[in-house]
Design a protein that fits this description.
single chain; 10 strands; 272 residues
Length: 272
């Protein structure tokens, strides 16, 4: 398929915009040269890279993202991480959550650390590149999806002069408590879309009820169709397909469904 065409004025859920944002999230896994070459082919002539380390439980990790700008829009895409590594530091329950943006609710400590590592760089890039009232967008897959949602939250609650036009996340974990999730849903209703592919195991952690997902779910069922919701029975039937003893095992259905290429392929099939 030809290069995706991002719509800087898209509103509501749009199948083509979802596919394009998934491609942008996938691009975050490439190296700097690959990001810049691809972004240029998409009409984004300026790119800024973000990279910093942080210290979740068990190991030093890093946050990577890029911000690309065109004459009409700015997109920041956060890179994800391996499901098993994400499971390790999301499972830590000994560290208290951190305050959310403008002291709104609470954020899982690991996500707060990961975002704080690069958010000043992201904010500086958006402020620098937004020289003609471009719309601002966030996207990401896996850990990157959680960071995209939180970046939009920090922008809304602490930098209201730079509102996010849209947020698309793919296979993001739960990031925050109910207070921040509810405030976020009120503030960014119609602008955030959380896409989950069938049995994606990362979308199921960390556990409820302490941590919550934001709303606006788009669920890709076992047949590859994007739905606005899923029934309890349908959800159980989908989850029953391909399950293994360890849902984080490399061959598990939940890990296969989490792969960014699985999201891109499914969303391409749903294009009008």
């Amino acid at each position: 398929m030809s290069a995706p065409t991002l719509n800087h004025r898209a509103t509501g859920y749009d199948a083509r915009q979802a596919y394009c944002m998934a491609k942008a999230a996938e691009l975050a896994y490439q190296d700097r040269d690959g990001v810049e070459a691809t972004a240029a082919g998409w009409g984004f002539d300026r790119v800024r890279h973000h990279h910093s380390t942080f210290s979740p439980p068990f190991a030093i990790s890093d946050t990577r993202a890029y911000t690309m700008a065109s004459p009409t829009m700015i997109v920041t895409a956060f890179r994800g991480t391996e499901p098993a590594r994400l499971r390790d530091w999301l499972s830590d329950t000994t560290t208290p959550p951190w305050p959310g943006p403008a002291n709104t609710g609470l954020v899982h400590y690991g996500f707060a650390e990961a975002l704080r590592a690069v958010f000043p760089s992201v904010l500086a890039a958006v402020e620098e590149l937004r020289d003609d009232e471009q719309t601002v967008w966030f996207t990401g897959h896996s850990l990157g999806g959680g960071l995209a949602m939180l970046a939009a939250a920090w922008l809304h609650f602490e930098e209201p002069a730079l509102p996010a036009q849209g947020v698309y996340t793919f296979g993001q974990p739960r990031t925050c408590n109910h207070a921040l999730a509810d405030a976020y849903d009120r503030a960014l209703s119609g602008r955030t879309f959380r896409v989950v592919n069938n049995n994606d195991v990362v979308a199921q952690v960390p556990p409820e009820p302490v941590f919550r997902h934001v709303a606006a779910l788009r669920h890709i069922d076992s047949s590859g169709k994007v739905r606005t919701s899923t029934s309890v029975v349908g959800n159980l039937l989908d989850r029953g397909k391909g399950m293994t003893a360890d849902p984080f095992a490399p061959a598990a259905d939940g890990v296969r469904d989490h792969l960014v290429k699985a999201y891109v392929a499914a969303l391409e099939k749903n294009l009008p």
